[in-house]
Design goal:
alpha/beta, single chain, about 750 residues, eight-stranded mixed sheet, globular
């Protein structure tokens, strides 16, 4: 169901819906910015998204730059969809103004509005309709300044051609808008500010109280300017809390992560949130069944991807996925357990296939994580939670990291169960809930439930399978035996704040850019550790590219730092997966966030950025790298180490040194040898070697107990696939997934006692 300006996810409004929520996107965005909201709303509440021309499905149409025309069109579409339902309007940033003007028109036409919600938006009185000229450069600066997209993507002319026109149109719309025109409406209003929003502070949000003749409540939520994507549960709770007559969502996530309501205006009460008991009760009803073949990894992976387990930073809602897995394993006769954490709906899932006969070996744990990073802020060609298969590739958030691996684990294990396998130890499948972010992951579980798993060995995410340059011939497969570890660092530049009419040299934002550019060109010395050296020695034997093999051997044989650096750079240049191999050779810096500014007519006095330094065990000392970076930037910026709450810099560095001192997992084990035999069967001709992982997994808590942990992504990958990990259009190859599942099956076959 839709009108030209509104679309309803799923195609129709459910008959049971008594409330319609219409959402207005921020500057330059379209309806997909609320993609994760549909299943989070109360079950009697339907979602409609404003779809303006010039973006999304209407990208070929001319954008609207007149506020009145925009609001008139949305009001007409809303009247068409509303029927007898109660109406709530929610706008984010510029969308708050659009929602406000739409509200005015609906009320003028006799359509009641139950509530108007302004999230992270400046109030109408901040806009005076002077119609200042807005240029493409202004749009580009806005995108860069608000973090609307990755600066590297913005530098792509094709991407810029798609992104900038709607941003430019919206900025022109705002420039011509005078919020003081028209009557102040009589409507209940919620004004929501995000505690870490650098662009719209609390004082700005509070001014919304002047723009309604009804009741106004100010609420706060954790998050930045795009909190509706970063922390959707809290924003939904702040907007819809205490709305009479609504029932909890099946996912029971309203209110989760909210700072609660910080304050009230005009003497009104605070926003209420659903009680923890009620949320847990409702979450328990959320589940999904799987009707396919449980030994088919592709069907399993699709079903897992369709369970949106996005982790906004404090843990995901994983209970529905756990219920689905529970049904799959129970149908196969395996024992299961769901272990809750203190966060509602956030659980660990276990399935155990007992060993047969006199079992003397501790369990092998197949450790996956059910949470995934959010799919926000970037434009996907497919729905990130649809599990779409196209051109032989399975697309979706988590397809690579790591629901594809989970599907391979489950399908391979259940194939053995179906065959009546007898293993020489228990095989445990564990789906962890807080691997990406959050406090209730593996370390929490092992601390709170000591001895419950008692693993003898763990296999989780890690090493890769690579082909020769022809893209089809197997070259090398790696099983990782240790992880890199990272340190979060923060930069701050300072000058002074002033009016934008008086810009000056040395502004904080400019200084920050200069320092970031210098750090972006910094390169650590090439220092492969023992695991990396083992891998690259095997790679030199495996590759059919003679130049590449020569560079690898020259790097490994180098006697001086200068020779090793020069050869290492040549290795990276010649590699088919340069980002991967570069990360296995040295300390790397990855830049993740930049913030500055809080008001359009103020030159900010400070600017900050955050980045991660990732270290190889046995290579660079973190303290020396921090000192080197400080020496590089001098007095132009302040560089600080971001540790755990209450941790000093020295404590954070010492903790990291402890992680880096964790010894490699022993690769003289029956599990490692079973993997090598499996690779030889499924990837003939490929060399199977121990390796250093370039990222971080949940291995350390096990390694602190001297449990060997091995990492693998069992399917073949290429550079494009690796670049899309945690990125846009994440995908894996369908046939590669099937082949990788066969590798896991053959590995487990090496632990059977009946064949």
């Amino acid at each position: 169901m839709s009108s030209p300006w509104l679309t309803v996810p799923g195609g129709r409004i459910p008959d049971a819906a008594t409330t319609l929520v219409v959402c207005f996107a921020p500057t330059g965005a379209h309806g997909s910015t609320f993609a994760g909201w549909r299943d989070r709303l109360p079950e009697d509440t339907a979602l409609a998204l404003v779809v303006p021309p010039g973006r999304g499905t209407r990208v070929d149409e001319e954008p609207v730059t007149d506020m009145a025309a925009f609001a008139d069109a949305v009001a007409a579409g809303t009247r068409e969809l509303l029927g007898a339902r109660r109406l709530v309007l929610i706008g984010v940033s510029l969308g708050a103004l659009l929602a406000y003007e739409t509200c005015r028109r609906l009320l003028d036409s006799g359509v009641p509005v139950a509530r108007l919600c302004a999230v992270a938006g400046q109030c109408p009185g901040d806009f005076h309709g002077r119609g200042e000229e807005v240029t493409v450069e202004d749009a580009r600066a806005f995108v860069a300044g608000t973090g609307l997209t990755d600066p590297e993507l913005l530098a792509d002319p094709e991407f810029e051609e798609v992104l900038l026109p709607p941003v430019l149109a919206d900025l022109r719309l705002a420039a011509g808008y005078d919020g003081r025109r028209g009557d102040v409406p009589q409507v209940g209003l919620r004004a929501v500010w995000a505690t870490d929003d650098p662009h719209v502070p609390e004082v700005t949000v509070r001014r919304w109280a002047e723009w309604t003749r009804g009741e106004c409540t100010v609420a706060s939520v954790e998050g930045g300017h795009y909190a509706h994507q970063e922390n959707p549960d809290a924003v939904i709770s702040a907007c819809l809390g205490t709305l009479p007559g609504t029932r909890p969502s099946r996912r029971s996530v309203l209110g989760a992560g909210a700072t609660a309501v910080a304050s009230t205006v005009l003497g009104l009460g605070a926003v209420a949130s659903t009680s923890p008991a009620a949320r847990a009760d409702a979450a328990a009803t959320g589940s999904a069944s799987f009707d396919g073949d449980a030994t088919d990894p592709v069907g399993l992976a699709v079903a897992m991807i369709r369970q949106n387990t996005s982790n906004p930073g404090d843990g995901a809602v994983t209970l529905p996925l756990a219920r689905m897995l529970q049904g799959i394993f129970r149908s196969a006769g395996a024992g299961t357990e769901i272990v809750p954490t203190p966060k509602d709906g956030n659980v660990h899932f276990f399935a155990r296939v007992p060993g047969s006969g006199p079992v003397t070996k501790k369990p092998l744990v197949l450790l996956g994580h059910s949470d995934v990073v959010p799919a926000i802020g970037d434009r996907w060609e497919t729905d990130p939670f649809a599990g779409e298969i196209k051109d032989g590739k399975l697309y979706g958030r988590g397809s690579l990291d790591m629901k594809g691996v989970n599907a391979a684990f489950v399908a391979a294990l259940l194939r053995h169960v179906r065959e009546g396998a007898a293993f020489d130890r228990d095989i445990v499948f564990w789906s962890d809930c807080d691997e990406e972010q959050g406090p209730y992951g593996v370390r929490w579980f092992l601390t709170e439930h000591p001895g419950k798993v008692a693993a003898g060995a763990v296999i989780t995410e890690g090493g890769w399978v690579l082909n020769q340059r022809d893209g089809t011939t197997p070259m090398i497969a790696s099983l990782t035996c240790n992880d890199k570890r990272s340190l979060l660092l923060r930069l701050e530049t300072a000058s002074y704040a002033t009016h934008t009419s008086k810009p000056f040299s040395g502004q904080a934002v400019i200084r920050l850019g200069e320092v970031l550019d210098q750090l972006g060109q910094w390169r650590a010395r090439v220092r492969p550790n023992a695991l990396s050296r083992r891998y690259f020695a095997e790679l030199a034997e495996a590759t059919t590219d003679r130049s590449f093999a020569g560079a690898l051997r020259e790097m490994l044989d180098a006697r001086t730092d200068r020779q090793r650096d020069r050869a290492g750079e040549e290795v990276v240049r010649l590699s088919e997966t340069p980002e991967l191999h570069n990360a296995m050779l040295r300390t790397t810096l990855a830049f993740t966030a930049a913030q500055s500014g809080y008001y359009p007519s103020i030159v900010p006095g400070t600017a900050t950025a955050e980045f991660r330094a990732a270290f190889l065990p046995g290579a660079d000392d973190p303290g020396r790298v921090v000192a080197e970076l400080r020496s590089l930037i001098g007095s132009r910026a302040t560089l600080s180490v971001v540790g755990n709450p209450g941790e000093s810099e020295q404590q954070a560095l010492d903790r990291l040194r402890g992680y880096l001192a964790t010894p490699d997992s022993d690769y003289d084990t029956d599990v490692f040898r079973a993997w090598q035999r499996a690779v030889r069967r499924t990837h003939p001709g490929a060399r199977a070697t121990a390796c250093q992982f370039e990222a971080v997994t949940s291995a350390v808590p096990f390694r602190e107990q001297n449990v060997p942990v091995y990492g693998m992504y069992p399917f073949t990958v290429n550079r494009d696939m690796l670049k899309r990990m945690h990125g846009t259009d994440e995908h894996i190859g369908v046939e590669a997934l099937r082949q990788g599942t066969e590798t896991v099956y053959q590995l487990l076959a090496g632990l059977r006692t009946d064949i």
